[in-house]
Amino acid sequence: MDAMNSAQSRFGLGLAALGRPGYINLGHAQDLRSNYAIGAMRKNAHAVLDAAWEGGIRYFDTARSYGRAEEFLASWIRDRGIKPNEIKVGSKWGYTYTAAWRVQTSNGIPHEIKRHTLEVLQAQFPQSMKNLATHLDLYQIHSAALESGVLENQEVLNCLHEISRSGIRIGLTVTGPNQAAVIEKALQIRFDNELLFKSVQATWNILETSATEALQKAHDSGVQVIVKEGLANGRLTSRNQQPEFAGKLAKLEGLALELGSTLDALALSAAIHQSWASIVLSGAACVTHLESNLKATETPWSDDLETALKSVCQAPEEYWSERAKLVWN
Predict the structure, then answer these.
(1) Most buried of the four, 130, 146, 226, 255, by CB within 10 Å?
(2) Residue-wise pLDDT tens digits, 142-172
């Protein structure tokens, strides 16, 4: 396998769309060709993982709630003989997968249930360790929120600190219009005068930039910053055919054309060029889209382009309201 390219090594691969039949990314069913047999999905996941490796990616992001994503990643690591010092793997706890391998659930059953309790942490961490063992480098609270009280739950924090003593880094992911406030609170939590959270993973894209200042502060504090949803779950691609987005879509596609790039590469290039961003995740569910995403490193960047892209930014409340309407497919 090829040596890591220094620019592309800033990319990571998220497995949210690879480990379960249903997800909210636009066109997810098309990417999987509506073939949800476990063997077929494992084969597709391994193909995307192979392409990621060949493209220089060495960070892989999964979670307990991503269906069989941990299992698919673990079997790929084992089949390829990849050693712990060759890659970094992050997983998460806090959500339980409940969709029972279905694209659509019925009777109001959610696809996943969120509970940030000590009992869930104590149940899910051993499961992640069973799958990922010595390859697990980062363990994160999945979508930490002020209202869940997880950042004030001393039993949970003590348990996470104990896990950190084994050499696994502790992190958190954030979501929603209050991302910045959650990050600020996390940066106040210390054990033995050291920050508990060594990494923060946040939604940031050219539509939703409200966490920028908090992410800069995290970076300046020595915390690794991972960017997720750089394509806004497919809304920053040509698949976004919402009439109200047509003007922005035309402008973005025009800019990409002028640069000899594509809309997805342009959007991800914006994330890569944030000085505070350590890793930018691709959420591709097929090889073609991953290869297109990786071309972000070839997209020319300038101050004028950064200024032009600011015109498409949305208010956080508008962005998250639209995200909440995305359909599992």
Answers:
(1) 226
(2) 999 999 999 999 999 999 999 999 999 999 9
